[in-house]
Design a protein that fits this description.
heterodimer, A: about 325 residues, mainly alpha, about 75% helix, B: about 525 residues, alpha+beta, 5-stranded mixed beta sheet, about 30% helix, globular
Chain lengths: ~325, ~525
């Protein structure tokens, strides 16, 4: 097991190293840099000012030197300075992580709390009116674009209550926080819950046809015990995989929700940073998201073993 | 106007300003104005930016030497009032402009303001000091200034190469605040210090900007507001909905498009909304060095193909203006009057006849229905550029030009245009000040960085100088009309339309004046108050 963990850790490092090269190269391939963007509003590019700015920011150095400087800084915990705000990148990135984490966490809770039980109900009541209604609900969740759903929710709030659940100031208490994030979390969690619901349903349907379920039933086990203890536990593996993927996606993929609900989180900040070609912010944020994705995948793999005793990790 | 007259005019203006800024019982003190901001500006340093995304939240942090009256909708030389300068005088030759400065003014960090700060600011703008801006987009505004000198702590003089009465127009812009000597440009980008009615509190990138009342403001009794909070909401739908829901007291100025205005009026009928020109125009840029556009007939045919009314009808529901390079009257001070505009080829009402003429010019140049001219129309990949470019492509088809849309990332647009790596493009040009001294030199002078089409007419440039030196406003206006007419006839950069946009505020917000010929000069907000 230990050697598996060591191997897995080294593989993670290798993956992150590969990602760092890809991010770095892609950013340099995209035409234009911060100097071009800053000059944009002025309506012209002054070559002397541009050259000076590039030299000040170290953008005139060979690409390999720039890469080495970034990775060296990263290893020392120095993320550099934002080209735009001129503040330390760490100070710009760190306050935004809890915001996105709260939103993503709440969205994930919402999608699991809604998706798993409804998926089970839909499978157990297969081909009934309830099943059709739930399938329709899940289909609508998958097909509705997040920005459209978000705007619909906002419009409904304005029309119905005269207020609007958008982020305007950092919440001061836990309750404030839940109230502020609940609506956007529901908007983004709806899509995830639809996915989880469909997967839970199909996985449950497969398990419910197995011999051991029939055996449990013939031994007189209650329907609840069969559905939630025997069937769901065995049907959970693919669902956990999807939940893991969704969790990783939610960290960096909330751009639409953060934009519509005006939440100053990681995803919106990343898109803005890409627009400004703010390399230190983009590189470090993408690396952070990559680390989260790699760690979540690792956690999911470990969870497999915890849920299914037949799975053992060894050399 | 000679120096004495100017001095008297300045004194009169000062009296007017004192009268206007005197105590008024109706206004209420207190409250924080909540406004959304359309995007996160690159920095807080007005001098280093060329967008009103910076000017709007930070203009109130500063003072200028002089400024446009904040309660007058139209900016003009006659609406300029003293600010940090208590008065000004010109010498007899009109090439030395001396400002007497206010005494007892303090920067927000408590240090005293003096003439040294004025010199420092303009030395940096003219690139003469050791402290450098990261960007200096308006350096060309001061090309006629040889140096700024001081006489004691409260007198500063601008020494000019030649007379330029309109220098005051540039100094009055929201783009021309006075910066403190003792604060570095880098600090001014992140924590600006000024002498203005509002002190900087914080700027959280992509989140918010906050300014608070300066209790030691030299203008007693101002500002009325306790502060202004700008929440950055780049999504326009969310921002407008939030305004309708009452989360904001005011929209971001000139950010409500004409179609959106209908939504606001229907969902928030009590909101006060004003539509005004922004002094931004859409124009056709043609690379006159690249064949076949080096042929004057082809350029003229393109100008004749334009149906400006169609652009205005489709994009603005009829609410935009048609004119030359200067903003048209009555809002514009210098724009061509309709009777002259009508006489310029392409501006007449008979579009069909114009296009017949355009087609015959194209046939003369070797093109026709069986042999169309294939081109790309380049433009920035944002809707305000892209939408008119699509209409332009459709109109060019009428004269045997088969155009394809070439959308360019914002990051690459101006470098592409500067390299002249385009044949035909659609561009937007914003003017900070409604004065020919700004627009003519920037956009049409030989060798100017913003002269995208490389139009160069030395004879006309002599007229640029003549109008700039002319102190008689009527004579100057006639010269400006002559220049503008020539620019349009020469197809230097055909102007398609001048934008209009809306601003809305809740009925309890008072003292807001939307300027009708500039989007850069009316955001001091020291006279704004909340009646609730």
């Amino acid at each position: 097991m230990i050697s598996y963990l060591v191997r897995r850790f080294l593989l993670m490092l290798l993956t992150l190293a590969g990602i760092s090269v890809i991010i770095f190269a892609l950013l340099r391939i995209v035409p234009g840099n911060i100097a071009d963007i800053l000059a944009d509003a002025a309506g012209f590019v002054n070559p002397a000012e541009k050259a000076k700015l590039e030299a000040d920011l170290g953008l005139d150095k060979p690409v390999a030197v720039q890469y080495a400087a970034w990775i060296g800084g990263l290893a020392r915990g120095d993320l550099g300075y934002s080209y735009v705000s001129e503040k330390p990148a760490k100070d710009e990135i760190l306050p935004r992580i809890p915001i996105t984490a709260r939103l993503a966490g709440l969205a994930l809770v919402f999608s699991i709390a809604l998706g798993v039980p409804l998926g089970v109900v839909s499978a157990v009541r297969q081909n009934t009116g309830l099943d059709y209604a739930l399938r329709l609900l899940s289909l609508s969740g998958l097909s509705m674009p997040a920005f459209w759903l978000g705007l619909l929710i906002l419009m409904a709030f304005v029309a119905g209550t005269g207020t609007m659940p958008i982020y305007s100031e950092a919440p001061k208490s836990m309750l404030d926080s839940i109230l502020m994030y609940a609506v956007p979390a529901a908007a983004v969690g709806f899509r995830s819950s639809a996915l989880i619901m469909r997967l839970t349903r199909s996985s449950m349907l497969e398990v419910l046809r197995q011999d051991y379920i029939r055996t449990a039933r013939s031994k007189g086990a209650s329907e609840n015990a069969i559905n939630y203890h025997h069937a769901l536990r065995n049907a959970a593996l693919p669902v956990i995989t999807v939940i893991g993927i969704e969790a990783a996606f939610l960290v960096g993929g909330l751009i639409v929700t953060e934009t519509v609900f005006n939440i100053p989180g990681v995803a919106r900040f990343l898109v803005e940073a890409i627009r400004w070609r703010d390399y230190p912010i983009v590189q470090n944020l993408v690396m952070f998201i990559a680390v989260v994705v790699v760690l979540v995948n690792f956690a999911v793999d470990m969870l497999y073993a915890a849920l299914d005793p037949r799975i053992k990790y060894s050399d | 106007m000679n120096g004495n007259h100017r001095s008297r005019a300045a004194s009169l203006a000062l009296l007017c300003a004192l009268f206007l800024t005197g105590p008024a019982s109706a206004q209420k003190q207190g409250g924080v104005l909540r406004m959304y901001h359309r995007d996160s500006p690159a920095s807080a340093s007005i001098h280093e930016e060329a967008t009103y995304s910076t000017v709007i939240p930070f203009m109130g942090v500063f003072n200028n030497l002089v400024m446009y009256r904040q309660d007058a909708a139209q900016n003009s030389l006659s609406s300029i009032v003293p600010d940090l300068a208590a008065s000004w005088t010109w010498n007899a030759a009109n090439n030395r402009l001396t400002f007497k400065l206010r005494e007892g003014v303090k920067w927000h960090d408590g240090k005293p303001f003096s003439a040294k700060d004025v010199k420092c600011t303009f030395d940096m703008l003219m690139d003469k000091s050791s402290a450098k801006f990261r960007k200096n987009p308006r350096k060309t505004w001061y090309e006629n200034v040889t140096e700024v000198t001081t006489n004691g702590d409260f007198e500063a003089t601008f020494n000019l190469k030649r007379p330029q009465p309109a220098l005051l127009a540039l100094l009055a812009s929201g783009y021309t605040p006075v910066y403190p000597c003792h604060v570095s440009p880098a600090e001014m980008r992140t924590r600006p210090i000024g002498t203005g009615p509002f002190k900087f509190v914080e700027f959280k990138t992509n989140e918010s900007i906050k300014v608070t009342r300066n209790p030691d403001y030299w203008k007693k009794g101002r500002p009325y507001l306790d502060g202004i909070e700008y929440t950055i909401i780049p999504n326009r739908s969310t921002a407008i909905l939030a305004f309708i829901a009452g989360k904001f007291d005011m929209t971001f100025p000139t950010e409500v498009s004409i179609p959106l205005l209908k939504d606001v009026k229907s969902q928030a009928p009590k909101a006060v909304c004003e539509v005004a020109p922004t002094n931004v125009n859409a124009n056709l840029i043609v690379n006159r060095d690249t064949p076949p556009f080096d042929h004057p007939d082809v350029r003229k045919a393109m100008e004749l193909a334009l149906d400006r009314k169609a652009f205005v009808g489709i994009l603005f529901e009829g609410q935009a203006d048609i004119g030359g390079s200067m903003l048209p009257p009555p809002q514009g001070v210098w724009g061509l009057p309709p009777e002259i505009l009508r006489t310029i080829p392409g501006y007449g009402p008979d579009v069909a006849r114009n296009r017949d003429e355009a087609r015959s010019l194209m046939r003369k140049a070797g093109y026709g229905p069986d042999k169309p001219l294939k081109i790309k129309v380049s433009t920035r990949n944002i809707p305000v550029y892209r939408d008119p470019a699509v209409i332009l492509i459709d109109q060019l088809k009428q004269i045997y030009i088969d155009a394809e849309l070439d959308v360019v990332e914002t990051a690459n647009w101006f470098s592409k245009v500067a390299r002249k790596d385009y044949s035909v493009g659609l561009n937007l040009t914003g003017n900070a000040v409604d004065d020919p001294d700004q627009g003519f030199y920037e956009n049409y002078a030989c060798g100017s960085e913003r002269n995208y089409t490389n139009y160069c007419n030395r004879d006309l440039e002599k007229l640029f100088d003549r109008q700039s030196m002319e102190s008689d406003l009527d004579k100057r206006r006639k010269l400006v009309w002559e220049i503008d007419k020539r620019l349009q006839e020469d197809v230097a950069r055909p102007i398609i339309y001048h934008f209009r946009a809306g601003t809305c505020w809740q009925p309890y917000v008072k003292g807001v004046t939307i300027m009708v010929n500039s989007s850069y000069n009316g955001y001091r907000y020291e006279d704004v108050w909340l009646d609730r």
